[in-house]
Amino acid sequence: MQKTSKPFGSWRSPLSAAQIAAAGKRLGDIHLSGDSIYWQESRPAEKGRTTLMRRQAGQGSAEILPAPYNVRSRVHEYGGGAFGVFRDEIVFVNDADRELYRIVPGKAPEQITQEEGVYYADLTADPLRERLILIREDHCQDDREAQAALAAVDLKGNGKSHLLDAGCDFYASPCLDPAGRCLAWLSWAHPNMPWDETTLWLAEIQENGKLGPKRKIAG
């Protein structure tokens, strides 16, 4: 076989950039509900769109989110948990408008929030109160830094979120106990990054859905 020498950078590869990028599919943010597994899956061939997948017991994997919906959160710039499973429904952050949408597999997504300039992340189901607990980041004030908070969104409410805790620069990872009586979360503040210093908080949830006095557990 005859060899051919060519200047650096002029050799024509049999592999295109599109072929290489298409092999870079990423999976993440796994949720379990009943006999189903849900996860995010990136689609390089669709301009990087991230969709939602489901696998049920005894069945194969199937995409449950139609294009052009794109699951992504931009809270704290780098995002966070962008979808949550609430019984037989999935709620996700749509990247195009940052709003929350509800989807039942086999049906079209339905918008459930109406808050321009507000970002959401770390969606946590609170079935006892028919709501989601999440991180809310308010970008409505152009002359000040975005304001982060711990908040809740009623799934049968008016499309608005309401505060549970505020005052820290950053919030993350809300987590309910199995009985739904207590909520734990993380927070941190400037100039620290989360790997430098964070605080773990715990509070009981009152009958009206608000948080009782919070206790510092660690940090």
Query: Structural class, judged by helices and strands?
Result: mainly beta
| Main β-sheet description | 4 strands, antiparallel
If you average the pLDDT, what whole number results? 89
**How many angstroms does the end-to-end distance come to?**
66 Å
Q: Count of DSSP E strands?
A: 16
Give the ordered list of helices and strands. HEEEEEEEEEEEEEEEE
- List the strand order in the largest sheet: 1-2-3-4
Number of helices: 1
Unreliable residue runs? none
User: In one word, what is the shape?
Assistant: globular
Fold and architecture overview:
It is a single chain. This protein has 219 residues and is mainly β. It is built from one helix and 16 strands. The chain has one helix spanning 17-22, and strands at residues 27-33, 36-43, 49-56, 61-63, 83-86, 89-93, 100-103, 110-111, 118-126, 131-138, 147-154, 161-166, 170-176, 182-188, 199-204, 215-218. The strands form four sheets. It has a four-stranded antiparallel β-sheet with strand order 1-2-3-4, with no helix packed on it. It has a four-stranded antiparallel β-sheet with strand order 5-6-7-8, with no helix packed on it. A hairpin with a 6-residue loop joins strand 6 and strand 7. The termini are far apart. The mean pLDDT is 89.
